[in-house]
């Protein structure tokens, strides 16, 4: 696999650490969260394998290009629109969560409009960038932010504030029957790789997904999952962990680095994770934007500056919906909608893979 | 191409105009803020079921050189709830009260009951209060303790903070409890949180922290004595600097332990799964710090067994005392829950078993030398 695919995967995992998924896990902590996570871990790796393998035959081609080659318009257009909506909502969900977190913990006195206004230029610029530049930005942020983020996460494991007794209590619930919501939320952790439906046009080299790659993805997933689920339980206690709104924010606030540059880890933590989340929103919306563009087939339109005009329309629509929902949605709604959204993910993934199977078969014959 | 460059210009102007909106410190300058360094909570005298909140506010001064002692202002107000009292206190000062740097919450001894949860709630719910703030009990009242300004307090510092968290004071007699830890332990089944108890001397110019309180639902919270606090700290939290005096006949030995480690297992009774006993093993390593007679290095083994016997007795006494009061500061119940596969009645089984549980303690003292002289 290209290194960019790993970057996409990891950025999605990190952005989810803070967003809605931990809360969903904790809500089900006594109803089979652990066993489901183990099952979903294997499913996620399998999905990654299936995706990479199905794109193997088409190096340097994105999903819209592949579909238009082998399938009729009647299938291609709805598929692209549905995928575009899914990717848009994925970015939107992260955006709302982060605006909420910023308002609550970093600048409680700032107006919500101003916080949104700070997001708009940066993310808009990200969306209209070329795909190639997005990947380079991704790499840059990775070099800058991920080592530090990884350092803090690893540090958590050795912090005396983590009570491993609570972690062990959480583990004693291993024998409960599995739960679908947890399954889908875990699967979403692995959705980062699915960004290649657009970025594959830049990945000209043929990709392989063997045992080695599977092992890397599995270990990354297991580590991300273990950290997401067990560390907040160790810090906040098992019995009431489901009552916290942003478990990870409270967790990072509970960690003290006695001789760190800043004793309160939360500020460094928030900024680092914010950078990665910004990136994640940008990537998802960029993918959504490209999907919509090819769904409406703007290449064929005979208007001057069609590319620019479509981008402007897209950006305006994206932000109108985003601003409206950010202002309207309460924390409870967000939790509920995220659950519905996550429940869709495994179905969409499976459908996409089966579609690719059909395309692969047609391409061979 | 022209459009592209125009859009870029537009972006640049947009980003730059964003800078104009920022005027530092989230719209309030630092000289418009008052930094609260500690909060004290007492039962209200005039409001029924209310609280009296006292804030210790650090006052700014020009340069550290100019000020020989730190200067503080104290604000007090009674109210039905903590949040309400703090809101009203905001009307007593000309600046914004900034709670983000508040590091110590001091609670009156009598308030350390189960309803603590209700007022601790305020501190957790507010995003800007640190979860790594220290929580401590106060005797005789939180207000008195807050108003103590020890002679050792340096300018631009707060003595209350230095006691905890092992940055300055590292004594095994000082228990450190963070706000998040208190919340975790209150809400968890099978452990009772332990808070340090801050006292002052008769002159009111010293802070003394060497006792601690076990928080439980009862009216009168159980206070751990100085010795018990030391044992609690070194057994559970591996504090260093544990000293121990052994007396045998005319021989007096002061032992310095640098390491102590406690491990324990539950012994299930036959038939039912309920635990019958706790098999505890304590290993302590250290050197002899002081003696009133000449010591021989060859006789270390004798001193070992002497000390072991004595430490065992003290630990047993402490454990049974906690058991009689039905308190569990060590979190045995939590560990019990953690080591069994979950069932509905796991915790009730434990609760039934704990009062009759038998402690089997073995202590292994390993003296490594007699200090720098024999």
Identify the most extensive interface between protein chains. A-B, 40 and 38 residues
* End-to-end gap of chain A: 26 Å
Quaternary organization: heterodimer
Structural class of chain B: alpha/beta
Distance linking N and C termini of chain B? 89 Å
Largest sheet, strands/sense/barrel of chain B: 9 strands, mixed
Q: Specify the overall morphology of chain B.
A: globular
Number of domains of chain B: 2
Question: Tally the helices of chain B: what do you get?
Answer: 10
Indicate the proportion of strand residues of chain B. Answer: 25-35%
Instruction: Count the beta strands of chain B.
Output: 13
Total number of strands of chain A: 0
Query: How would you sum up the major sheet of chain A?
Result: none
| Relative helix content of chain A | over 70%
Fraction of helical residues of chain B: 25-40%
**CATH class category name of chain A:** Mainly Alpha
Query: Outline of chain A, from the CA principal axes?
Result: globular
Tally of DSSP helical segments of chain A: 15
Subcellular location (chain A): Membrane
Pfam families (chain A): Spore_permease (PF03845)
Keywords (chain A): Germination, Membrane, Transmembrane, Transmembrane helix, Transport
Family (chain A): Belongs to the amino acid-polyamine-organocation (APC) superfamily. Spore germination protein (SGP) (TC 2.A.3.9) family.
């Amino acid at each position: 696999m290209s290194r960019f695919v790993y970057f996409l995967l990891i950025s999605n995992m990190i952005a989810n650490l803070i967003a809605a998924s931990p809360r969903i896990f904790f809500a089900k902590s006594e109803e089979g969260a652990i066993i489901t996570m183990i099952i979903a871990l294997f499913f996620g790796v399998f999905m990654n394998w299936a995706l990479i393998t199905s794109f193997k035959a088409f190096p340097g081609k994105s999903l819209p290009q592949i579909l238009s080659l082998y399938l009729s318009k009647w299938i291609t257009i709805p598929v692209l629109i549905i995928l575009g909506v899914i990717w848009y909502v994925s970015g939107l969900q992260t955006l709302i969560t982060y605006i909420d977190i910023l308002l609550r913990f970093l600048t409680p006195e700032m107006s919500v409009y101003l916080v949104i206004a700070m997001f708009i230029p940066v993310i808009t610029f990200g969306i209209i960038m070329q795909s190639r530049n997005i990947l380079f930005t991704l790499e840059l942020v990775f070099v800058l932010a991920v080592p530090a983020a990884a350092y803090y996460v690893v540090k958590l494991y050795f912090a005396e504030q983590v009570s491993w007794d609570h972690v062990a209590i959480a583990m004693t619930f291993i024998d409960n029957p599995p739960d679908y919501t947890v399954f889908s939320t875990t699967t979403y952790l692995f959705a980062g790789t699915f960004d290649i439906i657009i970025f594959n046009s830049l990945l000209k080299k043929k990709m392989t997904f063997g045992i080695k790659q599977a092992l890397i993805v599995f270990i990354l997933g297991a580590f991300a999952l273990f950290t997401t689920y067990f560390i907040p339980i160790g810090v906040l206690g098992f019995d009431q962990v489901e009552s916290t709104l942003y478990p990870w924010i409270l967790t990072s606030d509970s960690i003290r680095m006695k001789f760190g540059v800043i004793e309160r880890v939360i500020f460094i933590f928030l900024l680092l994770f914010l950078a990665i989340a910004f990136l994640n929103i940008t990537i998802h919306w960029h993918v959504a934007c490209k999907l919509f563009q090819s769904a409406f087939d703007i290449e064929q339109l005979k208007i001057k500056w069609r590319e620019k005009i479509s981008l402007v329309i897209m950006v305006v629509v994206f932000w109108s919906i985003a601003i409206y929902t950010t202002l309207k949605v309460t924390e409870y709604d967000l939790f509920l909608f995220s659950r519905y959204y996550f429940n869709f993910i495994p179905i969409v993934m499976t459908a996409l893979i089966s579609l690719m199977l059909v395309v692969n078969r047609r391409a061979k014959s | 191409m022209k459009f592209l460059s125009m859009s870029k210009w537009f972006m640049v102007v947009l980003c730059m105009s964003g800078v104009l909106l920022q005027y530092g410190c989230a719209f309030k300058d630092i000289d418009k803020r008052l930094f609260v360094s500690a909060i004290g909570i007492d039962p209200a005298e005039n409001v029924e079921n209310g609280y009296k909140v006292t804030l210790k506010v650090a006052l700014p001064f020009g340069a550290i050189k100019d000020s020989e002692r730190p200067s503080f202002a104290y604000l007090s107000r009674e109210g039905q709830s903590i949040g309400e009292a703090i809101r009203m206190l905001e009307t007593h000062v000309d600046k914004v009260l900034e709670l983000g740097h508040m590091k110590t919450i001091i609670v009156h001894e009598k308030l350390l009951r189960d309803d603590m949860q209700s007022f601790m709630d305020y501190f957790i719910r507010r995003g800007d209060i640190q979860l790594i703030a220290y929580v401590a009990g106060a005797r005789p009242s939180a207000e008195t303790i807050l108003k103590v300004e020890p002679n050792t307090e340096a300018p631009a510092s707060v003595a209350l903070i230095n006691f905890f968290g092992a940055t300055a004071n590292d004594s095994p007699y000082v228990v450190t409890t963070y706000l998040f830890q208190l919340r975790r332990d209150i809400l968890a089944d099978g452990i009772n949180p332990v808070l340090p108890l801050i006292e002052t001397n008769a002159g009111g110019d010293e802070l003394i922290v060497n006792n601690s309180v076990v928080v439980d639902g009862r009216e009168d919270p159980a206070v751990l004595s100085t010795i018990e606090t030391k044992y609690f700290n070194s057994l559970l939290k591996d504090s260093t600097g544990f000293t121990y005096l052994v007396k045998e006949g005319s021989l007096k030995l002061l032992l310095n332990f640098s390491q102590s480690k406690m491990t324990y297992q539950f012994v299930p009774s036959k038939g039912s799964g309920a635990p019958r006993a706790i098999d505890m093993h304590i290993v302590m390593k250290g050197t002899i710090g002081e003696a009133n007679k000449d010591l021989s290095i060859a006789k270390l083994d004798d001193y070992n067994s002497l000390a072991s016997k004595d430490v065992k007795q003290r630990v047993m006494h402490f454990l049974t005392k906690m058991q009689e009061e039905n308190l569990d500061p060590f979190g045995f119940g939590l560990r019990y829950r953690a080591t069994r596969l979950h069932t509905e009645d796991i915790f009730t089984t434990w609760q039934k078993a704990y009062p009759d549980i038998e402690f089997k303690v073995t202590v292994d003292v390993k003296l490594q030398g007699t200090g720098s002289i024999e």
